[in-house]
Structure formats: C-alpha cells, structure tokens
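Hey,
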Amino acid sequence: MSAETAQSSNNRLAYVLLVLTTTFWGGNAVAGKLAVGHVSPMILTTLRWAIAVSILLVIAGPQFWADRRKVLRHLPLLFAYGATGFALFNITLYSALNYTTAINVAIWQAAIPMFIFLLNFIIFRTRITIAQMIGFILSVIGVAVVASGGSVERLMELAINFGDVLMALAGLLYAGYSVGLRYKPDLHWKTMMVAMAFAAMVVSLPFAYAEWQSPAGIVPDARGWMVVLYTAIFPAIIAQVFFIRGVEMIGSNRAGLFVNLVPVIGTVLAILVLGEVFGLHHALALVLVIGGIWLAERKPARQR
C-alpha cells in the first residue's frame, strides 16, 4: 500500500469516527428530552457519571493508578474541570429540556464556540479580527432568533423561554471549561477522563440528593434507565475516545470543524426521534450560528 493510499484510508477512518462522535453528542439532547417524566435531571446526571466512572475504571484503571501522584498534585484543577464541563453543564442542559425543545438545545450548543471566543477576549485579550467580530455578531443574532422563536415582539419584550436561559448558562459553563483547558496538566487522556468523570459524579451527588428528596425527584423507570445508559456510554465515553482518536489522525484544526455538525445532527435526530417541528426560524438560526463560526475560524491565506 502506497503512502498516499494509506493516508486516504486514515482520513476516511477519522471522518467516520468524528461523524459518530458528533452523532452521539447530538443525541445527548434527544436523550435528555426522552428522559423528561422518566428520570429527573439531577438524578440522571449522577447516574450517568457513576456508570461512566465504573466503565472507565475498567478501561483506564491501571493508567490512573500509575498517574495517581500527578493526579493528587493537580486535583483542584481536575476537580474544577469535571465540575463545570461534565457535571454542571449536563445538569443545566438536562434541566433546560424540561422547558424547551431538543432542537433549541442543539442550536444553543452551536453557540458554545462563540462563548469561548468571547471569554478568551475578555480574560486573555485575544486579538480579534474583523471576520471574527462579524462571525460573533452573526452567531449572537442566530441565538437570539432561536431563543425568541423567531418573534421580534417576543425578543423586544425579553419574553425568552426559561429553558433557553438555562442553555445560555450551560454554554457559558462549557466555554469556561474549554478555556480553562489551556492549563491542562500533562496527564494521559485516560487519567484525565477518570479524574474528571469522578469529579462530575461527586459534584452532582448533592444536587441529586436534594432533587430526590423533593417532589421533582423521579427515580428512573425502564425508559429512564435506557437514557442513563445511553448518556453514560455514548456521549460520555465513546464520543470522547473517538474524538481524541480523530484528533490524533487528522489534527485538531480539521477535527474541530466536525463539532459544527452537532446542532445539525441534533436537529435531525429531534425531528426523526421526537417528531419535533422544524420551523423557518430554526433554519435561519442554524445558518447564522454555523456561518458565524465558520467566518470567525477563517484565516487569511498568509496565516494558513
């Protein structure tokens, strides 16, 4: 096999892994919607990470044990990663699905890169190009369109769905987690996954206990357990492993573009699985948000 043929085969495998990754991530919002009435958000999050930790310990236990001293040195940072990016993000996402549609949640996730861009500018004064500024504005308009249901009157009156407010908070939490990864310690990815998943489980426990004690608490039934297993195995573990492998094969810049498929796939799954209605304002929002991200990520020829 020639080097060119091997590279082509390598690219195809990476594309398959990355499309599967975004499919599993897009399915997370659909799974959360299916969970409504069958398992409550806080309990779902805790069970998801408890199962994920159990599976990860089987897969990555030896590596984690070998790195245990490094983990202890960086424990506060790893705990913060797991708390924001894994636990609180999913708690707010699943809670949002009690008040808004899976399509809205999928489109809100497309705004996360713009939140990251904004935080980098505010905290680190990252340079902004005209294209990035235009892209950011387009994405903000797209989010406003989906949050207002395409109604100018509703937007002007600020009568925005509470679920959309929660998704804005979820986006900020994940953006904070992503920006914070610039301080990521030099640890094997298996060790990182175990540590962050364990932190997510610990942080979510008080929320789950409080919810369980309240009238809102719902212990999972048969459908609830199916949702728990899906979110623990596919978005939490397999998607992460596939994404890491995809980055190794074709590089982070090319692999990162596939993340823009999450709202598209999430929207399609919401229509196919949940029977949600896709409106003109959803199409407009997708075009604006993804177009804004594409414009913001473009680089002049001299930089490429």
